[in-house]
Amino acid sequence: MKTLNTVAAHVIETERLQLRAPNRGDLETYLRLAGDPRVALKTTGIPHPLREADANEWLARANYGTRRTFVIARKEDAGMIGAVHLETRPDRVSAEAGLWIGVPYWRRGYATEALRGILRDAFGERGLLYITTGIPTGNPAAERVLRKAGLKFESLVEGGFRREGIIQDRVNHGLFADEWEALHC
């Protein structure tokens, strides 16, 4: 089994997208797109307001330890439209995924395509057995993306995370490698 710690310059290609490692040139776009409250407040991890120091920390942690972050870029213009990450758990056979897409790129299928790309890589190239993700309640668009990518509802955790001192519920979805294979054979 390959480990995520060996993929510093790993690039994932999909039909319309390229998932690549973030770099300093992405920080301005990251601040603009991820800093939009319509994006940040629908995630469990992007601070709001998003500051330059937060962006620098995001870049520093992007590919550190067990976390692999990929910029989502359109092939047609190579511009950053969002990001997706995969963090391997201590068992080294499962991981948690997360993603966001900038508002100008919503409702075009990019989130689903990027998530499918990271799942294909995680199950196929990395040999992971299970992927999970958690989102705040009240985000039906994210729920649709997760279902379209093949993830299944698993649980609702009351008080599952805290954002800016406010406890919120978390909706968990997951997918096993054999379920992925059954969907894509």
UniProtKB/TrEMBL annotation:
Alphabetized SUPFAM superfamilies for the sequence: Acyl-CoA N-acyltransferases (Nat)
Domain N-acetyltransferase: 17-185
Protein name as it appears in the record: GNAT family N-acetyltransferase
Matches recorded under InterPro entries: Acyl_CoA_acyltransferase, GNAT_dom, N-acetyltransferase
UniProt cross-references to PANTHER family, sorted A to Z: GNAT FAMILY, PUTATIVE (AFU_ORTHOLOGUE AFUA_3G00765)-RELATED-RELATED (PTHR43792)
